[in-house]
Amino acid sequence: MTGIGAASRTRATPAAAAALAVGLALLSGCAEEEKPSAASKVRPETCFGAFTPAELAPLLGRGDEVTVDSPYDLELNAQRRGVTCNIYVDGKSGVLATATWQPLGRGFQPLPETAKADSIPAVENGKVWDAGAVAGISCKRAEDSFELALGLSGTVDGKAGETRRVLVELMQKYVDRAKRQNECAG
Questions:
Q1: Maximum distance among all alpha carbons in the chain?
Q2: Which residues are CB-neighbours of 173 under 8 A, at least 6 positions away?
Q3: Which pLDDT does position 32 carry in this prediction?
Q4: Average pLDDT over residues 27-39
Q5: Would the N or C end of the chain have less CB density within 10 A of its end CB?
Q6: How far apart are CA 109 and CA 132, in angstroms?
Q7: Can you tell me whether residue 53 is helix, strand or coil?
Q8: For residues 142 and 36, what is the distance between their CA atoms, to the nearest angstrom?
Q9: What is the pTM of this model?
Q10: CA distance 25 to 83
């Protein structure tokens, strides 16, 4: 009988070892926690005070380290011609917002046809594509008039339709904020 018990133990040992290996692999996968929402590490209003963390969350995704490189405002003039807000998540750009001052009547850079851009309703010269959005607004004030070229870029985990929806919403807010901060009439 000793021989039968020994034989069954040797047959059970490879099966037990395989089960143990599978169990350990599953447990080690459970031990890895999902990274936190990167937006939870962004101040309440960021990128010139234009966006909230909740609005940026789809573009920022998840990550451990978030760095915001941005001035406080986007008030522009002939001396301060441009500002940039870049939010990095784990060392990679998650959201990029730009604003550039230019003389009235200069016009705006056309997008390449490969961008396959659509117009953004209710946004002056607004266009959106799979990874970005732009707007070109005229700013008329009593003392001077000029144009602002605004840009946004970012993606929602490769989901083009969702990216476009988010960028349209953000660009509408961005245009409103740029007009208010630059005291544009209308």
A1: 105
A2: 50, 51, 55
A3: 53
A4: 65
A5: N
A6: 14
A7: helix
A8: 47
A9: 0.79
A10: 48
